[in-house]
């Protein structure tokens, strides 16, 4: 089996057919699919049942109780997967038909690569293109290869550049070296997960838009700001990175300046009336309670790559 596709779902019935159809219509046909539903309360179960007789759909699993964490669903899918490669195809996204053929082809050509990712088109709830992109240098069509540890230190410490699981294919063999720590984070456990994968080999960036990353009000990321879950998860992961990458005191100050600036910007108008956010700031003073000097140091050092090792 070449590719195991894991589709974890919770209440994404409006997008689920498009998601599953975009997987089953891939030009690379050597694949198996696992549909995992985390006790949805919408029509997701009925939609999934429509695909039960497709031989590529190996299992459809309905949780009796909501786990509250998509990364626990990932792990369940990993345990079932028989493929050489894994693709976590998020249930509200979609892919171009040649997504797997392109990324798997690059991984087959480079045995040292553990992960390949494409560029994404941001779309709204109805599939309409949105006016922003995560690829400021554009999608040139180039194939770029990075040393994984270099990629982590240059691209992944400041923010998660592998920002959507649906745009990634990776080797199943890399799972053996991934600690279970990522499963404790609901908002951005994937950030820690991808860093663990990238540490094991090379990373391939396919500068082509092959993934459709949907933005809508029901996303976990859209509902994690007011109660502080977003910032608590980011803080925990950044503390992992400080230890993992042996950041110097200056690098830690720059990191604090970067995240204090972002915390202040995104919490503006909310912070004064949100006990949860005030508690987050007091819990992570090393990351979110920096001074103007920390922010200045971050801005001053940023052009020089302050976190480069």
Describe what you observe in this structure.
This protein is an alpha/beta fold and 309 residues long. The protein has helices at residues 13-24, 44-49, 70-80, 99-109, 148-156, 189-198, 229-244, 249-267, 275-283, 285-288, 292-301, and strands at 3-9, 31-37, 57-62, 85-88, 94-95, 113-123, 143-147, 168-171, 202-214. Strands 1, 2, 3, 4, 5, 6, 7, 8 and 9 form a 9-stranded mixed β-sheet that branches. Helix 1 (13-24) links the parallel strand 1 and strand 2. The two termini are 38 Å apart. The mean pLDDT is 92.
How is this fold's topology laid out?
Blueprint: E1 3-9, H1 13-24, E2 31-37, H2 44-49, E3 57-62, H3 70-80, E4 85-88, E5 94-95, H4 99-109, E6 113-123, E7 143-147, H5 148-156, E8 168-171, H6 189-198, E9 202-214, H7 229-244, H8 249-267, H9 275-283, H10 285-288, H11 292-301
Helix pairs in contact: 5-6, 8-11
List low-pLDDT spans: none
Which H/E pattern describes the elements? Answer: EHEHEHEEHEEHEHEHHHHH
Shape field: globular
Number of helices: 11
The helix fraction, in percent, is 25-40%
Overall radius of gyration? 20 Å
How is the biggest beta sheet arranged?
9 strands, mixed
Please provide the count of β strands.
9
- Mean pLDDT score: 92
Q: How would you classify the helix and strand content by structural class?
A: alpha/beta
Q: How much of the sequence is in beta strands?
A: 15-25%
How far is it from the N-terminal to the C-terminal residue, by CA? 38 Å
């Amino acid at each position: 089996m070449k590719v195991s596709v894991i589709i974890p779902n919770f209440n994404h019935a409006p997008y689920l057919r498009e998601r599953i159809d975009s997987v089953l219509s891939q030009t690379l046909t050597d694949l198996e699919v696992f549909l995992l539903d985390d006790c949805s309360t919408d029509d997701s179960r009925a939609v999934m049942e429509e695909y039960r007789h497709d031989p590529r759909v190996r299992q459809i699993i309905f949780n009796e109780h909501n786990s509250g964490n998509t990364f626990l669903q990932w792990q369940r899918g990993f345990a079932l997967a028989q493929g050489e490669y894994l693709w976590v195809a998020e249930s509200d996204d979609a892919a171009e038909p040649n997504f797997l053929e392109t990324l798997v082809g690059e991984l087959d050509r480079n045995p040292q690569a553990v992960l390949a990712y494409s560029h994404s088109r941001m779309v709204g709830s109805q599939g309409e293109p949105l006016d922003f992109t995560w690829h400021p240098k554009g999608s040139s069509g180039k194939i770029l290869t990075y040393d994984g540890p270099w990629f982590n230190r240059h691209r992944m410490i400041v923010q998660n550049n592998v920002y959507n699981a649906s745009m990634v294919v990776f080797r199943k063999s890399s799972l053996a070296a991934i600690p279970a720590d990522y499963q404790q984070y609901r908002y951005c456990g994937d950030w820690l997960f991808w860093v663990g994968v990238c540490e094991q080999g090379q990373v391939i960036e396919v500068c082509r838009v092959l993934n459709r990353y949907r933005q809508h009000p029901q996303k976990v990321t859209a509902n994690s700001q007011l109660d502080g879950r977003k910032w608590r998860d980011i803080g925990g992961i950044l503390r992992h990175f400080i230890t993992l990458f042996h950041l110097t005191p200056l690098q830690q100050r720059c990191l604090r300046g970067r995240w204090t600036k972002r915390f202040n910007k995104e919490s503006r108008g909310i912070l004064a009336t949100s006990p949860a956010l005030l508690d987050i700031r007091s819990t992570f003073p090393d990351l979110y309670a920096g001074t103007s000097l920390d922010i200045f140091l971050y801005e001053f050092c940023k052009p020089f790559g302050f976190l480069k090792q």
